[in-house]
Amino acid sequence: MQTILPVEPVICHNLINGEWVKGEGGQPDVFSPYNGKKIGEVSLPSPNQIEIALQAAAEAQVSWGKTPIKERSQILFNFRNILLRDLDQISHLKSSECGKTFAEARAGLMKGIEVLEFALSLQNLDLGGKLEVSRGVTCEYRREPLGVIANITPFNFPAMVPMWTIPICLALGNAYVWKPSDKTPLTALRIANALLEAGLPKGVFTVLHGGAFTVDAIIDHPAVKAIGFVGSTKVAKIVYQRGTQLGKRVLALGGAKNHIVLLPDANAELSGIGISDSFTGCAGQRCMAASVLLAVGDVDRHIQKVIARASSMELGKDMGALITKSQKDFLVDAIDKAEKAGAKILLDGRKAKAPAGMEDGNWIGPTILDDIQVGSEAATVELFGPILSIVRCKDISEAMKIENSVEYGNACSVFTSSGPLADRVVREASTGMVGVNIGVPVPREPFSFGGINASKFGHGDITGHHSLDFWSNVKKITTKWETQADSNWMS
Ligand code: NAD
């Protein structure tokens, strides 16, 4: 299905204490990457409005936190039904503002709903624990909410990334403050409205728009106990440092430069599909996209398959647009520089034609650069576009040395038919997530999502089981009701 852009501009206000409030800090336009046309306006809150919003969140959290998880889950069940009912509408809106194809936008929301299903299972699975540790003495642990928590999210997954945390944080009894990307505020409106319709009490969910100013005010506010961030490494570091200096809990996920190790014994057909789809999916604008192909030995027939599939992509149908014109210019410049430095251009996205009627959009085609030098920009910098840089390697040791030398640590994949060689890559990759014959190794729930190195600052993961301790407090209770007088080292 083709993306349907909004007919009228969508006005995105701030959700403060259950009401949509026009921001007093200005109202910039939002443009679609598809055709450069205005599709919305985003209203920015004033400092006073941010203060009112966060105070209301703190007040609302008190009774939400005391509501039993089974009751909280009923509202989240309603939320799931509403999202499924409105799946296509939300996906069109999401695709219009971030440039994804309709199918990609829909898949992202479905992945978010999978996290919601995990959160719904907590009422039956996350039961705490209790044990008699010495005669008449029990130890118990209980999970408690943190209070108000905030999440700051990027443009490239306007629904999936927020949905990594919204259901889990709400199920655990926190009040949730969302600062969506300033480039993609439209989806936020729909997700927040779905929560209101589901019956979430006012103030438990807050949306505040804007950039650094809003983020700083949220981090600094004493009511905000924990901060989740997903975005570039540059901003992840800023947010992590600001929050932790205030003694707050921060989990900040950053950028990536993901490698695929291609071995000559790999199935050429399947690796061609896996590698091509990994670097072209979401027009390369995802933190799990393949960026560098470490081509070990003679893998030319595999690379031909990658080229064949990538060159068959139709822009606007199989591959979406880039978020901004300046991002397109940055990518064209990066390809020019790589070419000047001696790269062979196996597929040139600079020449790709925009879809008819969308000439003012931000389009670039899949690009494959061969003979990229180790340490060059194309080999080390996160370009965030549909560009695959091929680095030729004589053996697997050289490939792993290159993989290990990059500052990021989100994902690494290997394509091979050898179990032991795959296992070597799994063991030696300096990443949080590894794929074997999978181009985009995103773990599905309940397995947690998260990288290492410059791809993540803070402890734990943002989804799945490993996120629960981050988004809650674990209270430990030691109790003695027996009246016997025996004493031991615990008495
Ligand atoms: P970004 O860092 O520019 O923006 C992320 C968020 O931070 C947005 O809400 C933005 O408004 C806000 N922000 C921007 N500048 C700020 C500042 N100086 N201080 C405080 N907040 C600020 O990222 P983006 O361009 O929206 O998203 C793309 C990046 O996100 C890529 O680097 C990509 O790899 C990364 N990403 C990472 C993951 C992951 O799981 N590791 C997932 C998705 C995207």
Automatic annotation (TrEMBL):
GO terms for molecular function: methylmalonate-semialdehyde dehydrogenase (acylating, NAD) activity. Gene3D superfamilies: Aldehyde Dehydrogenase, Chain A, domain 1 (3.40.605.10), Aldehyde Dehydrogenase, Chain A, domain 2 (3.40.309.10). CDD domains: ALDH_F6_MMSDH. Keywords: Oxidoreductase. GO terms for biological process: L-valine catabolic process; thymine catabolic process. It comes from the Bacteria. Residues 20-477 form the Aldehyde dehydrogenase domain. The keyword Cell wall biogenesis/degradation does not apply. The keyword Oxidoreductase applies. This is Methylmalonate-semialdehyde dehydrogenase.
